[in-house]
């Protein structure tokens, strides 16, 4: 998938949806149901672009219940209504998981495998600008059909194990996910399919390819 480069200075996360519209950047679906025992498929789409120093992400979700128990970064956001971006920015096998619940609380980890991952320090997670259509106050599960959006501005400095100056012309291996491990109806959707027996998003061997302009 191609990732457009856009010229945008001093962009705020809340203005990303409008910017993406103006730049005519299309949504991509997160719709692979990889495990038959978790058949529920909320409607999930994302779009991505980059600037000279950041990755820009916008997710739109429609699901039958929502939860945002976690309000502090590096908590268990994957148990809430959560969208995720995993990527290998430097081609050395170290991948980053950037996970975001429906109120913009994030978790960032880095490492070569699921075990032994290093969480980003607070000064790194604080670099990510976020906007959520649901605000930023935690809440317990609301069992009602809900539409929500989050937008993230992820500076390259967030890749804290590396010195990433530019992604221009680079190919990145990556995947995008939607989950909600503790929701009334748990689910595990991916952008690129994952062909294994049990849910596991920490599988860089099933990442797809992003081509940065």
TrEMBL record:
Residues 16-212 form the Carbohydrate-binding domain. SUPFAM superfamilies: CBD9-like. GO terms for molecular function: carbohydrate binding; hydrolase activity, hydrolyzing O-glycosyl compounds. InterPro entries: Carb-bd_dom_fam9 (IPR010502). One of its GO terms (biological process) is carbohydrate catabolic process. Pfam families: CBM9_2. It comes from the Bacteria. Signal peptide: none annotated. This is Carbohydrate-binding domain-containing protein.
